[in-house]
Amino acid sequence: MKDVSSTSGAQPRSAAKGGLGKSAEWVMQVVFLICGLIAVGFVLIISIYLIISGLPAIREIGLIDFLFGDTWRANDNQFGILPMILTSIYGTAGAFVIGVPIGFFTAVFLAKVAPPKLAAVIRPMVNLLAGIPSVVYGLVGMIVLLPWIRTTFNLPAGDSLFAAILVLAVMILPSIISVSETALQAVPKEYEEASLALGATSLETYFRVSVPAAKSGIAAAVVLGIGRAIGEAMAIMMVAGNVANMPSLFSSVRFLTTGIAIEMNYAQVGSLQRNALFSIGLVLFLFIMIINVLLNVVLKHNKGED
Question: Domain range spanning residue 33?
Answer without folding.
Answer: 2-61
